[in-house]
Protein backbone atom coordinates (compact mmCIF):
# COMPACT_ATOMS: atom_id res chain seq x y z
CA UNK A 1 0.00 0.00 0.00
CA UNK A 2 1.34 3.44 -1.01
CA UNK A 3 1.84 5.45 2.20
CA UNK A 4 2.83 9.00 2.99
CA UNK A 5 4.31 9.82 6.39
CA UNK A 6 3.67 13.19 7.98
CA UNK A 7 6.73 14.70 9.68
CA UNK A 8 6.63 17.63 12.09
CA UNK A 9 9.68 19.87 11.67
CA UNK A 10 10.28 21.97 14.77
CA UNK A 11 12.81 24.80 14.91
CA UNK A 12 13.23 28.51 15.31
CA UNK A 13 12.43 30.15 12.01
CA UNK A 14 14.26 33.38 11.16
CA UNK A 15 17.77 31.99 11.75
CA UNK A 16 17.19 28.60 10.11
CA UNK A 17 15.30 29.44 6.91
CA UNK A 18 17.94 27.97 4.59
CA UNK A 19 18.28 24.86 6.75
CA UNK A 20 14.49 24.39 6.81
CA UNK A 21 14.37 24.68 3.03
CA UNK A 22 16.88 21.82 2.68
CA UNK A 23 14.99 19.68 5.23
CA UNK A 24 11.63 20.28 3.54
CA UNK A 25 13.14 19.37 0.18
CA UNK A 26 14.64 16.18 1.63
CA UNK A 27 11.29 15.15 3.12
CA UNK A 28 9.39 15.85 -0.10
CA UNK A 29 11.90 13.76 -2.07
CA UNK A 30 11.08 10.87 0.29
CA UNK A 31 7.33 11.38 -0.36
CA UNK A 32 6.84 12.61 3.21
CA UNK A 33 4.44 15.38 4.22
CA UNK A 34 6.30 18.15 6.11
CA UNK A 35 4.49 20.12 8.80
CA UNK A 36 5.81 22.94 10.96
CA UNK A 37 3.63 25.28 12.95
CA UNK A 38 6.50 27.62 13.83
CA UNK A 39 5.70 29.31 10.50
CA UNK A 40 2.71 30.82 12.30
CA UNK A 41 2.91 33.08 15.37
CA UNK A 42 2.23 30.76 18.30
CA UNK A 43 1.10 33.49 20.67
CA UNK A 44 -2.01 32.23 22.39
CA UNK A 45 -3.72 29.14 23.76
CA UNK A 46 -5.81 28.59 20.63
CA UNK A 47 -2.70 28.55 18.45
CA UNK A 48 -0.96 26.15 20.86
CA UNK A 49 -3.98 23.82 20.70
CA UNK A 50 -3.65 23.80 16.91
CA UNK A 51 0.08 23.01 17.14
CA UNK A 52 -0.61 20.05 19.44
CA UNK A 53 -3.25 18.74 17.06
CA UNK A 54 -0.79 18.88 14.14
CA UNK A 55 1.83 17.02 16.21
CA UNK A 56 -0.81 14.43 17.13
CA UNK A 57 -1.48 13.85 13.43
CA UNK A 58 2.21 13.45 12.55
CA UNK A 59 4.00 10.11 12.40
CA UNK A 60 7.49 11.44 13.21
CA UNK A 61 9.02 14.50 14.84
CA UNK A 62 12.24 16.30 13.85
CA UNK A 63 13.89 18.98 15.98
CA UNK A 64 16.48 21.33 14.47
CA UNK A 65 18.53 23.46 16.84
CA UNK A 66 20.73 26.32 15.70
CA UNK A 67 22.00 29.30 17.67
CA UNK A 68 18.73 30.65 19.02
CA UNK A 69 16.41 29.45 21.76
CA UNK A 70 13.31 31.02 20.21
CA UNK A 71 10.31 33.12 21.21
CA UNK A 72 9.03 32.55 24.75
CA UNK A 73 5.67 31.92 26.34
CA UNK A 74 4.56 33.65 29.52
CA UNK A 75 6.55 31.11 31.60
CA UNK A 76 9.81 31.86 29.77
CA UNK A 77 9.85 28.58 27.78
CA UNK A 78 10.34 28.69 24.02
CA UNK A 79 7.58 27.36 21.80
CA UNK A 80 10.13 25.10 20.13
CA UNK A 81 10.86 23.48 23.49
CA UNK A 82 7.13 23.22 24.21
CA UNK A 83 6.68 21.35 20.92
CA UNK A 84 9.56 19.01 21.75
CA UNK A 85 8.25 18.27 25.25
CA UNK A 86 4.77 17.59 23.87
CA UNK A 87 6.19 15.18 21.25
CA UNK A 88 8.05 13.40 24.07
CA UNK A 89 4.89 13.20 26.13
CA UNK A 90 3.00 11.72 23.17
CA UNK A 91 5.83 9.20 22.55
CA UNK A 92 6.43 10.32 18.98
CA UNK A 93 9.54 8.86 17.30
CA UNK A 94 12.03 11.75 17.55
CA UNK A 95 15.34 12.70 16.00
CA UNK A 96 17.11 15.92 17.02
CA UNK A 97 19.69 17.70 14.87
CA UNK A 98 22.26 19.85 16.69
CA UNK A 99 25.03 22.03 15.24
CA UNK A 100 28.36 20.19 15.24
CA UNK A 101 30.30 23.43 15.76
CA UNK A 102 28.07 25.92 17.64
CA UNK A 103 30.91 28.46 17.84
CA UNK A 104 30.87 28.84 14.06
CA UNK A 105 27.29 30.18 14.02
CA UNK A 106 27.30 33.85 13.06
CA UNK A 107 26.46 36.39 15.77
CA UNK A 108 23.21 37.59 14.21
CA UNK A 109 21.89 34.02 14.32
CA UNK A 110 22.95 33.42 17.94
CA UNK A 111 21.50 34.20 21.33
CA UNK A 112 22.80 37.52 22.63
CA UNK A 113 21.73 37.41 26.27
CA UNK A 114 23.34 35.18 28.86
CA UNK A 115 19.89 33.98 29.91
CA UNK A 116 19.08 32.99 26.33
CA UNK A 117 22.39 31.15 25.94
CA UNK A 118 21.80 29.29 29.21
CA UNK A 119 18.30 28.19 28.19
CA UNK A 120 19.58 27.09 24.78
CA UNK A 121 22.28 24.89 26.36
CA UNK A 122 19.74 23.35 28.74
CA UNK A 123 17.44 22.64 25.80
CA UNK A 124 20.31 20.96 23.91
CA UNK A 125 20.95 18.69 26.90
CA UNK A 126 17.26 17.76 26.96
CA UNK A 127 17.31 16.98 23.22
CA UNK A 128 20.37 14.75 23.64
CA UNK A 129 18.32 12.32 25.73
CA UNK A 130 16.76 11.10 22.47
CA UNK A 131 18.40 10.17 19.16
CA UNK A 132 20.74 12.99 18.08
CA UNK A 133 22.59 13.78 14.87
CA UNK A 134 25.00 16.65 14.25
CA UNK A 135 25.08 18.94 11.19
CA UNK A 136 27.47 21.51 9.75
CA UNK A 137 25.83 23.14 6.67
CA UNK A 138 22.24 23.33 5.36
CA UNK A 139 23.12 20.86 2.60
CA UNK A 140 24.73 18.51 5.12
CA UNK A 141 21.60 18.76 7.28
CA UNK A 142 19.34 17.83 4.36
CA UNK A 143 21.42 14.73 3.64
CA UNK A 144 21.47 13.66 7.31
CA UNK A 145 17.71 14.15 7.60
CA UNK A 146 17.12 11.91 4.56
CA UNK A 147 19.13 9.05 6.06
CA UNK A 148 17.60 9.55 9.51
CA UNK A 149 14.00 9.46 8.27
CA UNK A 150 14.64 6.26 6.30
CA UNK A 151 16.05 4.63 9.45
CA UNK A 152 13.24 6.02 11.60
CA UNK A 153 10.58 4.58 9.29
CA UNK A 154 12.38 1.22 9.34
CA UNK A 155 12.84 1.11 13.13
CA UNK A 156 9.46 2.62 14.08
CA UNK A 157 6.88 1.77 11.41
CA UNK A 158 3.94 4.18 11.57
CA UNK A 159 0.39 4.06 10.25
CA UNK A 160 0.99 6.88 7.78
CA UNK A 161 -1.53 8.30 5.34
CA UNK A 162 -3.11 6.48 2.41
CA UNK A 163 -5.70 7.43 -0.19
CA UNK A 164 -9.22 6.45 0.80
CA UNK A 165 -9.57 4.40 -2.38
CA UNK A 166 -6.70 2.19 -1.22
CA UNK A 167 -8.44 1.09 1.99
CA UNK A 168 -10.33 -2.04 1.13
CA UNK A 169 -12.91 -2.52 3.87
CA UNK A 170 -13.76 -2.07 7.54
CA UNK A 171 -12.24 -5.42 8.55
CA UNK A 172 -8.89 -4.37 7.09
CA UNK A 173 -8.99 -1.16 9.07
CA UNK A 174 -9.70 -3.08 12.28
CA UNK A 175 -6.80 -5.42 11.55
CA UNK A 176 -4.47 -2.50 10.95
CA UNK A 177 -5.51 -0.92 14.25
CA UNK A 178 -5.03 -4.24 16.06
CA UNK A 179 -1.55 -4.62 14.61
CA UNK A 180 -0.75 -1.04 15.51
CA UNK A 181 -1.72 -1.62 19.16
CA UNK A 182 0.29 -4.83 19.20
CA UNK A 183 3.26 -2.97 17.73
CA UNK A 184 3.02 -0.31 20.46
CA UNK A 185 3.04 -3.03 23.14
CA UNK A 186 6.08 -4.70 21.58
CA UNK A 187 7.91 -1.36 21.33
CA UNK A 188 7.21 -0.69 25.00
CA UNK A 189 8.57 -4.14 25.90
CA UNK A 190 11.64 -3.52 23.73
CA UNK A 191 12.23 -0.18 25.43
CA UNK A 192 12.06 -1.92 28.81
CA UNK A 193 14.62 -4.50 27.69
CA UNK A 194 17.05 -1.89 26.34
CA UNK A 195 17.11 -0.07 29.68
CA UNK A 196 17.99 -3.19 31.66
CA UNK A 197 21.42 -4.62 32.38
CA UNK A 198 22.50 -7.66 30.31
CA UNK A 199 21.81 -11.03 31.88
CA UNK A 200 24.73 -12.15 34.06
CA UNK A 201 26.23 -8.66 34.42
CA UNK A 202 25.07 -8.54 38.05
CA UNK A 203 28.08 -10.75 38.82
CA UNK A 204 30.54 -8.21 37.38
CA UNK A 205 32.30 -5.34 39.15
CA UNK A 206 30.41 -2.10 38.49
CA UNK A 207 28.82 0.94 40.12
CA UNK A 208 30.61 1.82 43.36
CA UNK A 209 33.08 -1.07 43.11
CA UNK A 210 36.61 0.32 42.88
CA UNK A 211 39.36 -0.12 40.31
CA UNK A 212 43.03 0.72 40.80
CA UNK A 213 44.42 2.32 37.63
CA UNK A 214 48.14 2.13 36.86
CA UNK A 215 49.69 4.77 34.64
CA UNK A 216 52.84 6.71 33.85
CA UNK A 217 53.50 10.43 33.87
CA UNK A 218 56.41 12.85 34.02
CA UNK A 219 57.33 15.17 36.88
CA UNK A 220 60.37 17.08 38.11
CA UNK A 221 62.04 18.50 41.19
CA UNK A 222 64.61 21.24 41.43
CA UNK A 223 67.29 19.10 39.76
CA UNK A 224 65.87 16.80 37.10
CA UNK A 225 62.85 15.11 35.51
CA UNK A 226 61.43 11.71 36.44
CA UNK A 227 59.25 9.05 34.90
CA UNK A 228 56.61 8.29 37.56
CA UNK A 229 54.37 5.25 37.90
CA UNK A 230 51.62 6.19 40.37
CA UNK A 231 48.19 4.61 40.81
CA UNK A 232 44.75 6.08 41.45
CA UNK A 233 41.54 4.44 42.60
CA UNK A 234 38.17 5.20 40.98
CA UNK A 235 34.73 3.64 41.14
CA UNK A 236 33.33 2.29 37.89
CA UNK A 237 30.59 4.93 38.06
CA UNK A 238 33.16 7.72 38.33
CA UNK A 239 34.97 6.50 35.22
CA UNK A 240 31.78 5.98 33.20
CA UNK A 241 30.29 9.34 34.23
CA UNK A 242 33.43 11.07 32.97
CA UNK A 243 33.66 9.40 29.55
CA UNK A 244 29.99 8.69 28.69
CA UNK A 245 28.97 12.11 27.25
CA UNK A 246 31.70 11.69 24.62
CA UNK A 247 30.08 8.44 23.46
CA UNK A 248 26.65 9.90 22.70
CA UNK A 249 27.52 9.98 19.00
CA UNK A 250 30.77 8.05 18.49
CA UNK A 251 34.24 7.99 20.01
CA UNK A 252 37.39 6.71 18.33
CA UNK A 253 39.36 4.21 20.38
CA UNK A 254 42.41 6.46 20.74
CA UNK A 255 40.06 9.26 21.90
CA UNK A 256 38.62 6.82 24.45
CA UNK A 257 42.12 6.33 25.85
CA UNK A 258 42.81 10.07 25.83
CA UNK A 259 39.68 10.61 27.92
CA UNK A 260 41.00 8.26 30.61
CA UNK A 261 44.38 10.04 30.49
CA UNK A 262 42.62 13.38 30.93
CA UNK A 263 40.70 11.99 33.91
CA UNK A 264 43.97 10.94 35.55
CA UNK A 265 45.50 14.38 34.95
CA UNK A 266 42.77 15.99 37.06
CA UNK A 267 43.99 14.23 40.21
CA UNK A 268 47.47 15.72 40.59
CA UNK A 269 46.80 16.70 44.22
CA UNK A 270 46.00 13.07 45.07
CA UNK A 271 49.18 11.91 43.33
CA UNK A 272 51.26 14.38 45.35
CA UNK A 273 49.92 12.83 48.55
CA UNK A 274 51.56 9.52 47.66
CA UNK A 275 54.92 9.19 49.51
CA UNK A 276 57.05 8.74 46.39
CA UNK A 277 55.85 11.95 44.75
CA UNK A 278 55.44 14.53 47.53
CA UNK A 279 58.49 16.57 46.46
CA UNK A 280 57.73 16.59 42.74
CA UNK A 281 55.95 19.20 40.64
CA UNK A 282 54.94 19.95 37.03
CA UNK A 283 53.24 16.61 36.42
CA UNK A 284 52.45 15.99 32.74
CA UNK A 285 51.95 13.41 29.95
CA UNK A 286 49.57 11.04 31.74
CA UNK A 287 49.24 7.65 30.00
CA UNK A 288 47.20 4.75 31.36
CA UNK A 289 48.74 1.27 31.13
CA UNK A 290 47.43 -0.67 28.16
CA UNK A 291 46.36 -3.55 30.41
CA UNK A 292 44.18 -1.29 32.56
CA UNK A 293 42.75 0.52 29.54
CA UNK A 294 41.79 -2.78 27.92
CA UNK A 295 40.25 -3.91 31.22
CA UNK A 296 38.06 -0.78 31.37
CA UNK A 297 37.05 -1.18 27.74
CA UNK A 298 36.13 -4.86 28.12
CA UNK A 299 34.33 -4.28 31.44
CA UNK A 300 32.08 -1.53 30.08
CA UNK A 301 31.34 -3.69 27.04
CA UNK A 302 30.49 -6.67 29.26
CA UNK A 303 28.24 -4.47 31.40
CA UNK A 304 26.31 -3.55 28.25
CA UNK A 305 27.20 0.16 28.51
CA UNK A 306 29.19 0.59 25.28
CA UNK A 307 29.48 -1.24 21.98
CA UNK A 308 31.46 -1.05 18.76
CA UNK A 309 29.75 1.26 16.28
CA UNK A 310 27.98 -0.49 13.41
CA UNK A 311 28.17 2.51 11.09
CA UNK A 312 29.64 1.59 7.70
CA UNK A 313 33.02 3.12 6.81
CA UNK A 314 35.55 3.14 4.02
CA UNK A 315 37.79 0.14 3.44
CA UNK A 316 40.83 2.16 4.56
CA UNK A 317 39.28 3.03 7.92
CA UNK A 318 40.89 0.74 10.51
CA UNK A 319 40.11 2.65 13.72
CA UNK A 320 37.52 1.17 16.08
CA UNK A 321 34.65 3.49 17.01
CA UNK A 322 32.73 3.10 20.28
CA UNK A 323 29.26 4.34 21.14
CA UNK A 324 26.75 4.06 23.98
CA UNK A 325 24.21 1.26 24.00
CA UNK A 326 20.60 2.17 24.85
CA UNK A 327 21.29 0.80 28.33
CA UNK A 328 24.49 2.86 28.56
CA UNK A 329 22.55 5.98 27.56
CA UNK A 330 20.01 5.18 30.30
CA UNK A 331 22.73 4.74 32.95
CA UNK A 332 24.52 7.93 31.85
CA UNK A 333 21.28 9.87 32.25
CA UNK A 334 20.70 8.40 35.71
CA UNK A 335 24.23 9.33 36.79
CA UNK A 336 24.48 12.81 35.30
CA UNK A 337 20.97 14.26 35.09
CA UNK A 338 20.20 16.86 37.73
CA UNK A 339 17.59 15.67 40.20
CA UNK A 340 15.24 17.65 42.38
CA UNK A 341 15.66 17.69 46.15
CA UNK A 342 12.04 17.31 47.18
CA UNK A 343 12.65 18.39 50.79
CA UNK A 344 14.47 21.62 49.95
CA UNK A 345 12.70 22.25 46.64
CA UNK A 346 15.93 23.11 44.89
CA UNK A 347 18.23 21.48 42.38
CA UNK A 348 21.17 19.32 43.43
CA UNK A 349 23.67 17.44 41.24
Tell me the number of helical segments per DSSP (H or I, 4 or more residues long).
11
Strand content: 15-25%
Instruction: Please tell me the overall pLDDT.
Output: 87
The CATH architecture term of the largest domain is 3-Layer(aba) Sandwich
Instruction: Give the ordered list of helices and strands.
Output: EHEHEHEHEHHEEEHEHHEHEEHEE
- Which consecutive residue ranges, at least 5 long each, have pLDDT under 50? none
For the biggest sheet, the summary is: 5 strands, parallel
Fraction of helical residues: 40-55%
Which class of the largest domain in CATH terms? Alpha Beta
For this structure, the CATH topology of the largest domain is Rossmann fold
Please indicate the count of domains.
3
What does this structure look like?
It is a single chain. By secondary structure, the protein is an alpha/beta fold. It folds into three domains: 6-162, 3-Layer(aba) Sandwich (Rossmann fold), CATH 3.40.50; 167-194; 201-348, no CATH class. It has helices spanning 17-29, 45-57, 79-89, 114-127, 138-155, 170-194, 236-243, 253-265, 268-272, 290-302, 326-336; strands spanning 6-10, 33-35, 60-64, 94-99, 131-135, 210-220, 225-228, 231-235, 251-252, 281-288, 306-308, 321-324, 339-341, 346-348. The strands form four sheets. A five-stranded parallel beta sheet has the order 2-1-3-4-5, with helices on both faces. β6 and β7 form a beta hairpin. α1 (17-29) crosses α5 (138-155). It starts with 5 loop residues before the first strand and ends with a strand. The mean pLDDT is 87.
Amino acid sequence: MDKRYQVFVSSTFEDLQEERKEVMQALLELDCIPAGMELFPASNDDQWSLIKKVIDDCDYYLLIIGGRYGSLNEKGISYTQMEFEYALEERKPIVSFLPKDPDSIVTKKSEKSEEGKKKLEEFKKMAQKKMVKYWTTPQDLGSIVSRSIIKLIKDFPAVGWVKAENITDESSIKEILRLQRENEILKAELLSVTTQAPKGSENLAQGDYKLEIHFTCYAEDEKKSYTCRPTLIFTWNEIFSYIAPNFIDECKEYEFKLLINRLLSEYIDEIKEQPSFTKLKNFSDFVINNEDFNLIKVQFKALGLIKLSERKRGVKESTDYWTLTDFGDHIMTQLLAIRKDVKKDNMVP
